[in-house]
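sorry for the late reply, my laptop died twice this morning and i had to redo everyting from scratch. anyway the thing you sent over, i finally got around to it. pasting the sequence first so we're on the same page, its 334 residues, then the predicted structure underneath. double check i copied it right bc i was rushing
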Amino acid sequence: MSNENPQNCCEKFKTSIGGQALIEGIMMRGPEQDAIAVRSNGEIKLELKPRKIRPKGSVATWPLIRGAVNFFDSQVAGVKALMRSADLSPEGIEEEEPSKLDRWLEEKLGNESFQKLIVGIAVFMGLGLSILLFFMLPMVIVGFLDQWVHNNLVLNLIEGLVRMCIFMAYMLLVSRMKDMKRVFAYHGAEHKTIRCYEAGLPLTVENVRQQTRLHPRCGTSFLLVVMVISILVFSVASTVLLTLVPALEAMRGTFLYRLIMIVFKLLLLPMVVSITYEINRWAGRHDNWFTRILTAPGMWLQNFTTNEPDDSMIEVGIAAVQAVLPAEEGADRW
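ok and here's the structure:
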């Protein structure tokens, strides 16, 4: 377990640049473009893609809406980058022969539409698995307790506790997988490079190496806050629903009641994500005792999802960050 102090990075400002670990590489998302940097055969392969800037005032930029929109957008971008890194990495040089189904789909849809379909399926499966594992499973487990526990707040607290236990067990198991250790090391390189940049230091291997591998705006921390916020939102919303629809209370303990509550809570997930985004955005812009307490659990969890990178991984992180720095200094200020 790491004993490093995240507050020792001498932060000068907070950047909106963020990233994701890939297969033998890192994706960085800047205000103007995205970059994918992958280590292949000793060299760093770099690809850039301009970002679509949403016009000011559009619905997608409104508070409590932008969170869900940005989350979905980041999932799509992340899947695309992950697939591309698999092609660029040494393991992706020898391409497998496409199946008959792949060839048929590509012939019918065209290469671009086929790629969009693959990305769409990957995003759907990734989000679906997360929802199934971290939300539906706890709902189903705790649903069987409603015939004995009638207090709605207590039920949601138990559900939240089960959800947190599943999430922690999942993170612990994934962190022990051999194939994930290098990915988590690139995750650490991503954090360290951003920390170095926010400290106002030159982006050199030596400077980056000295930084902490923990960062308050990490996606791991975001997911943990989602778990906590879901307890509050589900408790309040389900209590309001039962108050407005008294007939539901009479159905408690039945399959239909449990199904209605599960569907109702799943429909609330975009709101949970949006609220979490606003909290994460606010906490990321401030540094005081309250925000440090707020981000402490997520920072601790990053000890399982980040590893110390080697110098070659740090070089990849530096290349990715430098590629997305805005033309106007300070334009990426968070």
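The longest strand covers residues 33-40.
thats about all i looked at so far, will dig more tmrw
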